[in-house]
Amino acid sequence: MVRANNKLLGVACIAAALISACVLGGWEHAHPFFGHARYQVVAPTLQRWTYAAVQTLKAFGFLCGLFGFLSIATRRGVILKIIMGLATVGAMFYAVVWIMIAVTARDDAIYVSGHPIGSDIHSNGGAFFLWLAPIALGIAGLSTSRIPRWQSLWPIIIGLVGLRIFGLLAPGVALIVEGFIWLVFGYIVYVHSGDGAEIDAAKV
Predict the structure, then answer these.
(1) Domain spans in the chain, listed from the N-terminal domain onward
(2) What is the pLDDT of residues 93-131, one digit of tens each?
């Protein structure tokens, strides 16, 4: 039952990554979501609401992948559980912010203590499930050696690449790359959720 659940978590992550890369990345490349002025959203109504839906799907799909990796590759200690709790809250807040961006057609969709919250991952909860949790899970995976080391390194790469990718690449390209690296992550979870999937550390 646990393995079957982990397979579903992996599939959810794969699906979210594919949809995110194709819809968000492709549409962003064809028609940018944000304008040049601060907090300006230039996307039409259909694009705003599609983005909100896909960003929400992305948040919970990637979160599924993280929980799957937690199960297959780590010992699930207290610190990891706390980090996963933060990731869950972060994903929920991230989804709410993107829905509010669709409602207000502004990138300062929510104000918290006078500070604008919008698409910036540093403030909208995305940092917890896109950066912090993957890095922590990867480190935990390396310490347990339940899966190949390069696969435990992969979530660390996800977190580190995520820190820089949107500053180095055009948004559309960055979204496509983000989708690809999370697709691989979801596949790792899926592969190691089947019968006989666990790998002896001596073989790694």
Answers:
(1) 2-203
(2) 999 999 999 999 999 999 998 899 999 999 999 999 999
